[in-house]
Specification:
CATH class: Mainly Alpha
Distance between the termini: 82 Å
Shape: globular
CATH architecture: Up-down Bundle
Number of domains: 1
Strand content: under 5%
CATH topology: Sodium/glucose cotransporter
Largest sheet: none
Order of helices and strands: HHHHHHHHHHHHHHHHHHHH
Keywords: Membrane, Transmembrane, Transmembrane helix, Transport
Radius of gyration: 22 Å
Family: Belongs to the sodium:solute symporter (SSF) (TC 2.A.21) family.
Membrane topology: Multi-pass membrane protein
Pfam family, one: SSF
Protein name: Sodium:solute symporter family protein
Number of strands: 0
Structural class: mainly alpha
Oligomer: single chain
Amino acid sequence: MNTLIWFVILYWVISVGIGLYAARYVNNSKDFAVAGRSLPMYVVTATVFATWFGSETVLGISSTFVKEGLKGVVADPFGSSMCLVLVGLFFARPLYRMNLLTIGDYYRNKFGRTAEVLVTLCIVVSYLGWVAAQIKALGLVFTVVSGGYISMNAGMMIGAGSVLIYTLMGGMWSVAITDFLQMIIIVIGMLYIGWEVSSMVGGAQVVVEHAANAGKLDFWPSPTPRESLWFFAAWITMMLGSIPQQDVFQRVASSKNEKIAGNASVLGGVLYFCFAFIPMFLAYSATLIDPKMVESLIDKDPQLILPTLIMTKVPMLAQVMFFGALLSAIKSCASATLLAPSVTFSENILKPFFPKQSDKQFLFMMRAVVLVFTVIITLFAMNTNSSIYKMVENAYKVTLVSAFVPLAFGLYWKPATTQGGLASIILGIVSWVSMEVFAPDGLWPPQLVGVLMSLTGMIAGSLLPQIVRKKLVV
């Protein structure tokens, strides 16, 4: 135990030091927000992968798979990895050519100031659950490796504070460089611990066959209207709802050119999909290695199954490799998701109120917002009981119903107008919230109703005024 704690401390100090070193590249707001649009292919790919390979991948997806099987993780990794592929194929290049600082700038240029404010607020709110999940996971790691000596709340404060330090100083440069190193640790650590656990159960095939016999590999839902609709809604929540997010856009905008922006997103998505199955394999292996432990935790807190297995059943080197990979996954995701909403809130909400400020003052504003957002998120994480997986999945419902349709139709549908964009945003949000309040568990998933109404608002809001004007002219 002492060895593991000292490893965690050493790793933490080194990673924070690297992040602070990267701050030397930050000379202006563009460096802070998008790393000066200068990152090469291998760094962009690494930061795409490392940002998405967070606590929900290691702890959330794995525990959900043990309980519900593949059909329970349709949102992530199936939907989330497909999101990155779609971004690379259809959104990265046109957005990169616009030379924007944030995704909110796109909505202002295409649909006006009101749309910019509405979508930016939705994006910022959507990050509450996602970032809180990473902070909560940091608290969980510190509690586990300290044997309970460090409480969940204390662990969350320590984790949030240390991630804040280098994100506050180095912005996207610190995030990108630490992500690159953390991707290496994640890949090596996950492969090693996968090999170690596989040898304990007699090979990967034994685990796969056991999962198949238990029905855990059944992917498609029951052929009923409700099951099919909810399955489809879960899939598109992260597949489409993640596309209009600032963290995704930052990786696109930070690339050296548009080719890198597109290719790195696709490659990062493919890598994420492949490696996301390793934590599922590890967690399900626990049902063979220590079934009593799994039975005791499955309903109490399934997120503890995987770390408990590692702490009690594998050698110290494997523990070090696992928690190194886990900390890398959480820290890379936490830093990115702290930076993204802070930058877009500064650029698209606050900046217009201070039109005469210098770039240096704007850089200070972004750093101040990062600090405030971190405090708010940490308090939120300390006062919520939601699972890590659900917190991340729910985060994307907001942007799915408000931001996806205006982004996609604004880029690829010529008749799209300001009226259509505003109608899409407002109808999507209002219908989704109404469904969440009055029929949260009905036949139709609230977020699916929201995105359909958003689509209706875009088409009707764009075409009807044009039809009316033509009739008046005639």
